[in-house]
Amino acid sequence: MAEASPAPGSAEERARFVALQTKLAPMFRDTYANPLAERTVVVVPGLSLDQETLGHIPGAAHYEERQLSMLMLLRLPHTRLVFVTSTPVDPAIIDYYLSLLSGVPSSHAKRRLVLLSAYDAAPQSLSSKILARPRLLDRIREAIPNLESAHLSCFNATAEEVTLAVQLGIPLYACDPALAWLGTKSGSRQAFREAAVDLPDGAEGLRGADELSEALAALKARRPRLARAVVKLEEGFSGEGNAVFDFRELDGRSVTAAWIREAFATRLRPEANGMSAERFLAKFGEMGGIVEVWLEGREKRSPSVQMRITPTGVLEVISTHDQLLGGNSGQVFLGSTFPADERYRCSLQQAGRRVGEVLAGHGALGRFSVDFVTVREDEGWAHYAIEVNLRKGGTTLPFQMLQFLTDGRYDAERGEFHTPTGQRRVYFATDNLQRDAYRQLTPEDLVDLIVEHRLHFDPTRQQGVVFNLIGALSEIGKLGMVSISDTPAHAETLYRRTVAVLDREVGVAMLHGRAD
Q1: Cβ neighbours of residue 418 under 8 Å, at least 6 residues apart?
Q2: What are residue 233's DSSP bridge partners?
Q3: What does the H/E/C string look like for 406-461?
Q4: How many domains is the chain built from?
Q5: Ramachandran class of 249: left when φ > 0, alpha when ψ lies in -120 to 50, beta otherwise
Q6: Is 196 a domain residue?
């Protein structure tokens, strides 16, 4: 019988959690360094984020599938994976991922894979759904043969993931929620200052419309030519928690805090589709946030640096990306290209590493990324840090798939990824390929098209396309894709060729190589 669990949030739970976390370092050093060692990874891929903001992302209920890249761990012959989701994943999707395992029979991988579900599509965190179902918790425990070689993997860590780890009796490989403030917008700005990296002029720690209007007025006073400012919810993500305040066309009007307060209704434009300025301000009052200048430049990019702090305290630079952004004002994450532009990727990496060292000094753990706005200036490229994502993110799955499929390594000195034979690999990735016409397709249909048109990733050439978010295909016509090749041009060409195949199959009209 499992030991009685302490009350969530109690001092006893905290003490047990801290004790469990001490197991990670020796486990990482001894067990996880050996590819033949027995281990169990419990994957809870839910997004424990603000559910209202999450609800503005089309197909967010299927974003748990982004962590199906973890199934690639089954290439290790004695690794067991327990994958828990809100609703069952279509067997065709699981079979698709298992087919990507080179050198491992699917039957062998399936014996080591346990799929469990809460059968609950409600807009709540997956961890809360599991904790509300004692029998599901028991089934997860029963699927772990040895607690001493198991850990919990999640998208991001909150108090609920701490409770889940304690009730399962295994450590959590993610940043302690006690350090969550480092991943807020205000905490990010504090970390940037500690790291001595450039950041946009602005103000943090704001709460409510009055403080926001005062900060905007002060920012405009410091920068009279400022045309726009970005307002960010403290715990927004993917750009969906952002809004833009427009200072243009003032007609000589004096900009005061009182005027800004009156102008919110017409000049504050939230990035999330369907969110009004009034509702955004209400969220700002609940959550707090920051304001920053809208950075301008004749050439402007939005790159990121993905890093990891291991349980032994080692900071690793994993990758650099140029983010593909869209939305009302170009702040919503759509996808990425890897690696970042060679003209600035090394200096970008250096800036990211400085931030990573600050986070490591505070005791952060696991994967995270730092987003920048990079602008071309007379003396070169200038990097302005804008936020820390103290969790997995949109660039996690693409890079994991590249890493697992090729068994290659990232060369941090050159900012490049190489296969074991020394060949360079890059990719073009998106989480947001969406057409209404794609709703005609089921996961089985997509697999048929992959086979018929040879869209499958080719392990001999170590190039090709990998799909994700397949479960959102029939529901909202949305799909994710990672196009892996040897050059950025080839990767994008392969991506567009694949899109063209899908469009032809569903009857989407094409004009100049693009869908209408």
Answers
A1: 408, 409, 411, 424, 425
A2: 289
A3: HCCEEECCCCEEECCCCCEEEEEEEEEEECHHHHHCCHHHHHHHHHHCCCCCECCC
A4: 3
A5: left
A6: no
Beta 514-515 vs 150-154: how paired, if at all? unpaired
Bridge partners, residue 203, by sequence: 291
Instruction: Write the DSSP symbol of residue 373.
Output: E
Angle, CA of 49, 53 and 54, to the nearest 5°: 60
Residues 26 and 168 both lie in one domain? yes
Q: What is the mean pLDDT of residues 303-324?
A: 94
Q: Say what the pLDDT of residue 389 is.
A: 92
The pLDDT value given to residue 411 = 93
Single pTM value for the model: 0.90
Whether residue 79 contacts residue 50, with contact meaning beta carbons closer than 8 Å, is answered with no
**How far is it, in rounded angstroms, from Cα 264 to Cα 503?**
41
Mean pLDDT of 272-284: 89
pLDDT digits (tens, 9 = 90+) for 217-244: 999 999 999 999 999 999 876 657 899 9
Q: Which amino acid is at 319?
A: S
Q: Is residue 180 part of a domain?
A: no
Q: Write the CA distances from 141 to 46, 151, 166, 366, 454, integer angstroms.
A: 18, 12, 11, 23, 40
Do 223 and 264 share a domain, yes or no? yes
The CA-CA-CA angle for residues 185, 341, 409, to 5°, reads 90
What CATH code is carried by the domain that includes residue 370? Answer: 3.30.470.20
pLDDT in tens, 2-51: 568 899 999 999 999 999 999 999 999 988 888 899 999 999 998 776 67
On whether both 270 and 339 belong to a single domain, the answer is no
Same domain as 106, residue 168 = yes
Residue 72 has pLDDT above 60, yes or no: yes
